[in-house]
């Protein structure tokens, strides 16, 4: 059984946001608007999503 995956998409700009939020978005691997990345669902990733939840959209992805 493989670990769950999360598709994270940047939906709002980081312009004018706190530096810690900008760095968190960068650490997630999001480089530009509407760009998506897939990460394994871990507590660390969930914490990063919680910090910038107002900027991103998260979907669960089934690996098959």
Give me the secondary-structure topology.
Layout (H helix, E strand, L loop, with lengths): L4 E6 L8 H9 L8 E5 L2 H9 L4 E6 L3
Antiparallel strand pairs: 1-2, 1-3
What does this structure look like?
By secondary structure, the protein is α+β, with helices and mostly antiparallel strands. It has a single domain (5-61), classed as Ribosomal protein L30/L7 (Ribosomal Protein L30, Chain: A). Helices cover 28% and strands 27% of the residues. It has a three-stranded antiparallel β-sheet with strand order 2-1-3, with no helix packed on it. The protein is globular and about 40 Å long.
Summarize the structure.
28% of the residues lie in helices and 27% in strands. It has 64 residues and is of the alpha+beta class.
Structure keywords:
globular; alpha+beta; 2 helices; Ribosomal Protein L30, Chain: A; 28% helix
How big is the Rg? 12 Å
Please tell me the overall pLDDT: 94
Which blocks of ≥5 consecutive residues have pLDDT under 50?
Answer: none
Shape: globular
CATH architecture: 2-Layer Sandwich
Structural class designation: alpha+beta
Please name the CATH topology.
Ribosomal Protein L30, Chain: A
**Contiguous helical run count:** 2
User: Please, what is the oligomeric state?
Assistant: single chain
Beta strands, count: 3
Strand percent estimate = 25-35%
What is the first-to-last residue Cα distance?
A: 10 Å
Major β-sheet profile? 3 strands, antiparallel
How many domains, in number, for the residues? Answer: 1
CATH superfamily: Ribosomal protein L30/L7
Question: What is the CATH C-level name?
Answer: Alpha Beta
The helix/strand series, from N terminus to C terminus, equals EHEHE
